[in-house]
Amino acid sequence: MVYRNVTPLVVACALAAGCGDDLNTTDSATGTETDPTSTTDTPATTTDVTPTTTETTTDSTTSDTSTGTTGDEFPVGGCGAPPFEWLPSDGMGEIIDFEQVIELDAPTITDLLEQNGFTALGEADFGARVYKIRYVTQDRGEKHETTGFVSFPLLDAPEERPVVVWAHGTSGFTDACAPTKDPMGFQVPLILAAKGFVSVAPDYIGMNGWGPASNRLHPYIVPEPTAIATLDSIRALYQLAAANMDLPSLPGDDVVLFGASEGGFATLWADRYAPHYAPELNIVANVAAVPPTDAVGLTEHGATVFGPTTGALAAAVVGGWDWTGRQGDLSEVLSPGPPIDVATTLPMLMEGGCTFDLPPEITGTNQVYTQSFIDAVVDRDWEALGDWGCFLRQATLGESEVPLLKITPTLIQQGEVDDLVYTPVVKADLPRLCDQGYQLEHIDCAGAGHGDSVLQAVPYILQWVTARLDGEPLAEPCVIHEPTDCAAL
Asked: Global pTM?
């Protein structure tokens, strides 16, 4: 369920990250970059906003499925993982290294958009400069290095601009699949800067696109490491800007989260974790496009209806299993065959490349999952599912033990015929989130699938973000809409 960008500024793929959320991909294209300018002798200093520790007081208690705490009974880890505690926030987001990737003026960006048939956003408002960064985050109580992009509008005189975090869709599960590894992976941060936003685009843990290898599998559809690396990328942006660099613009205080597919999952969970992990951040809006909000419901669908969701949620089971320490035998969940030993083959495929296809011999869900797992998922039999069910519940927003401390205006965008993040499952989940306190606006793009729906909605999304930055209230909170022509919004 991955893709790679294959031509310059093919925004349809880049924004949706879903051209290949169909389990298919092609090789990265080569592109022309500016000569990277190493700036490693410029020491990065801390941001003016002093990071606070994670000792946020909550009323939550730790359930039986969680082990390890931050010291305030906040649930971390769990599902059979060895117990750990978060490191203090001091040092999180520290810049290890950075390099300039590309700088283009506004007319050039406009020409490239037009050449590739993407004129819905109009002309570029600014030129843009993009860097790639390596920064410090943490995972399971240990410091961890990861990578990403940051981008800045080219202004005549530096001034503060709103921050947009771009959380990319699934592009693979290893270092080789990181957007910063792709010669054209900077596309979305470049476009966001051209529209006037300072942007940061993390690669996620397990996806180091440059520098030392991560030597681990990306924790796919696992909330905690995804949220933490995303939040620390924002800290890294502020630290880079505070390093007395000659930047053409500066990050302001207001932060907007924007992600598609797995990236929508990332922004929802980053928003949920932010008051506990990075309370200094002022997140004012969240756009979650085609997001898998309900991992349990999507697994039930994928385990009973053979299609794109079937393999995707099997990969999510592998992600949870790997992140929690590879406890248990995958053959309890994934079919040992015939025709294919999925329990053995799937982790190898995820570790070995930037895509995987279910072998053509597989034609049914019971050739991917064991029947006992299918039955337990359908029955929501948590005792029978054990840690396997724990992974799925932890990745289901409506069942999270993480206290919802802050209500962020959130746009959920779907595609009517999305058969990967299956639209009926997520749409049915949204009223539950509203009942729990979420303030959501919803659009469903008529006739559109997983990737093209995001492309259709981008102009509306940017209008929606501008309204939130201007302090406008949501027009129709928690109204779940029927499909509409998103290009006409």
From this structure: 0.87
